[in-house]
């Protein structure tokens, strides 16, 4: 089928848009099954059909764009040998080339307000003196990155990153953005003098509005700041977490460990059906968000701890907090450390709900637990239409011993 985006084939995103969506889902489902059977050498008793996304475009709630003075040129532009070509770009990195950026005219991943903001910012910087686009090779320039977040509740957050402080020009641009797009509810900025673009260790400052967005799931509210991790497909995130809650089979009497809890979204989502929830996460700021979200929702039976998982999840920690009846784990793409897997096996919860964005490492970890746990069912979820990425939720149940 014909791709819907003019940037298809060059941009690193949406690489599967030439495939009918049903075919994409079929490939993703098979990817999960193949990983479990070929890498993990396990066969689930039940394989549920993948949950496709109702929205296959404009589904992302967060995008980050890069300013560059080294725009990626098309073959036609190179062949033309014109020397008046504008080399400035505001868009996405070319895969495998950190210093080349594809200028994006229209992106189909986020609400159209994102396109309006990006195009307006680019035009302003090009038509006003003193806004040189960043030189990624030589670390020079003024405007660096533009992050746009939206929420299902209607909020819009914009974070502008500058390489150095020029208060007059910074405020002029921020004032223009606020006036041009009145829907913006959170306008922020950062002075990033580092070599890389990551903002997690930077001081992000509020310029106008509030410093967060609100996401809603059922009767829960989640505060999302500029550094917060939140699933980028809000609609599918709700379906994913609903599957997790279902697989956990909670009666209200269970102690639940939520490993790699992030900002505590899953922990808070299952807390009202649990006796107690203990969340662990490496990033201290994320744990701060988790505690705020618990307070925001009046949840008093969830506690959160920050630290490296293999160092936090120990025998002494379990002795102090009680043996888990259910473990929910949602590790990064690299999967779980062997020490974490071993501690889970010693804790011997009745059920493990394993959420993964990488079927290969999920299969590897499940194989390590296969002597003690049976994989009962899996539920693939498509969080990222038109890409090869797929999430999978697996329910593992403790095998019955001879004493049963």
Short description:
30% of the residues lie in helices and 25% in strands. By secondary structure, the protein is α/β, with parallel strands linked by helices. It has an eight-stranded mixed beta sheet, sandwiched between helices. A seven-stranded mixed beta sheet has the order 4-3-2-5-6-7-8.
How much helical structure, as a percent, in the residues?
25-40%
What is the third-level CATH name, the topology of the largest domain? Rossmann fold
Integer-rounded radius of gyration:
23 Å
Number of helices: 11
> Main beta sheet: strand number and arrangement?
8 strands, mixed
Order of helices and strands: HEEHEEHEEHEEEEHEHEHEHHEHEHEE
CATH architecture tag of the largest domain: 3-Layer(aba) Sandwich
Mean pLDDT: 95
CATH class categorisation of the largest domain: Alpha Beta
GO molecular function: rRNA (uridine-C5-)-methyltransferase activity
Protein name: RNA methyltransferase
Keywords: Methyltransferase, S-adenosyl-L-methionine, Transferase
Active site: 357 (nucleophile), 357
Secondary-structure topology with pairs:
Elements: H1 21-39, E1 46-47, E2 62-68, H2 75-80, E3 89-94, E4 97-103, H3 112-127, E5 143-150, E6 156-162, H4 167-180, E7 186-191, E8 205-209, E9 213-217, E10 220-224, H5 234-248, E11 255-259, H6 265-271, E12 276-281, H7 284-296, E13 302-306, H8 309-312, H9 315-321, E14 326-329, H10 338-347, E15 351-356, H11 359-368, E16 373-381, E17 391-398
Parallel strand pairs: 1-16, 6-7, 11-12, 11-14, 12-13, 14-15
Antiparallel strand pairs: 2-3, 2-5, 3-4, 5-6, 7-8, 9-10, 15-17, 16-17
Helix pairs in contact: 1-11, 3-4
Active site: 357 (nucleophile), 357
Family: Belongs to the class I-like SAM-binding methyltransferase superfamily. RNA M5U methyltransferase family.
Binding site for S-adenosyl-L-methionine: 231, 260, 281, 330
